[in-house]
Amino acid sequence: MKASFKKTLKSTLPILLGVFLVWYSYYRTTEEEKQQIIHYIKEANLLWVGISVILGVLTHLSRAIRWNYLLKPLGYTPGLMNNILIILTAYFTNLGIPRSGEILRATALTTYEGVPFEKGFGTIVTERVIDLIMLLLIVGITLILQTDIIWAFLQGKGFNGSVLIGVLSVGTIGLFLSMYFIKKSTSTLAKKLKKILKGLMDGVFSIFKMKNKWAFAFHTLFIWVAYIAMFWIIKFTIPETIDLTVSQLMVAFVAGAFAMTATNGGIGIYPIAVSGALAIFGISSVSGDAFGWIMWISQTFMIVVFGAISFLLLPLWNRNR
Fold first, then answer.
1. Model-level pTM greater than 0.90?
2. Residue 142 in contact with residue 250, Cβ under 8 Å?
């Protein structure tokens, strides 16, 4: 009973945090600012919002195709329609319970395509590792392109360069020492960690051995370019953000990407993170908040609509199985 309570509490914490941040985002603005934000949202050009949503849908289709490139070497080739429906359903369920979608994806693949749970889940973990690498790559590119202004912003907030370098150095040394001790240790925990790390590394390096590695790389690149493009397009919905460059918007994109992991689908925190990043480039909090809310509402609406349809359609599509 106690364990069940802890599990329930843990799963609801991101939701509670999201609700609190929505409240905070609402009450930190004046009544006039609220009206301006609502005005921007209502007057947003649906053409640009629609293009952004279409790009979002295409990323899910690309993920469905890419997933088969990981499953094929294992001896399985699920139907593309099933892949699409399963992925959209998984994103939909993630809005309610964080990371539940990954379990659902593997379970649905087992149910409707006969892929063993462990193998299906292994491909999903590999996908997540690749996506993490891509996000870190984008972070690196963004830091290189906007080094001066990001550094000036950090200094303005009281960050000390030597302290930052010291923290990074200590963290790097600590990481390598931890990996060294795990490698040398014979404890049960160390063995489990080594097994997990080996599985992850095998999953990542298996990409280079797969028959369709270039197609896999293309879809991976397309997904992340589309992510940036669907974010960039939203700038045309707010007059103050129209002149922002791609590299400037990438700073806000990175902030939003990390915000998405903090709560369910970034609820509450996403607009705050995007607005804070855009403020570095002189964008007002009203325009920044409106930008973040338009982006979040459009993409969340897409996931809710297509995810709910997929959730209902998946068993009907497989009614003969």
1. no
2. yes
